[in-house]
Design brief:
By secondary structure, the chain is of the alpha/beta class. The protein has two domains: 1-62, 2,3-Dihydroxybiphenyl 1,2-Dioxygenase, domain 1 (Roll); 76-128, 2,3-Dihydroxybiphenyl 1,2-Dioxygenase, domain 1, CATH 3.10.180.10. It is 16% helix and 36% strand. The strands form two sheets. Strands 1-4-3-2 form a four-stranded mixed sheet, covered by helices on one side. A four-stranded mixed sheet has the order 5-8-7-6, with helices on one face. It is globular, with a radius of gyration of 15 Å.
Length: 128
């Protein structure tokens, strides 16, 4: 067996319309499919990144909050490749999103920074 890449990452949000706007309009991910699953009273939104990987955005009634930030067991953060961390930081801040100061990875010498989605999920911008 050989893993060839990441197909998708699944995220459960607390406010579907708000998160749909954040990921599709602010982060500019392309909507592939949107389904309302009546039996679960849940939306599932498939979003594409330019490299073909995807995010699945779910809404579930009464989903528990993330227990802590960011060292809870499970997914620590989701990192996105960007051509310019500086330009991406400026863009997000222009939309009222708090972004940490830019740092440099001691191992690779690449710039990176963190911000959060509307539910506090830690997201990273990492330079190509």
């Amino acid at each position: 067996m050989q893993l060839l890449g990441i197909h998708h990452v699944a995220i459960i949000c607390s406010n579907y319309p708000r998160s749909k706007h954040f990921y599709s309009e602010i982060l500019k991910l392309t909507i592939i499919n949107e389904h309302y699953r009546a039996e679960r009273q849940s939306y599932k939104l498939d979003l594409a990144l330019p490299d073909g990987s995807q995010l699945e955005l779910f809404s579930f009634n009464d989903a528990p909050s993330r227990p802590s930030y960011p060292e809870a067991q499970g997914l620590r953060h989701l990192a996105f490749k960007v051509s310019s961390v500086e330009n991406s930081k400026t863009y997000l801040e222009s939309h009222g999103i708090d972004v940490e100061e830019i740092r440099v990875d001691e191992t690779t010498g690449k710039k990176f920074t963190f911000f959060a989605d509307l539910d506090g999920l830690p997201l990273e911008l990492y330079a190509l």
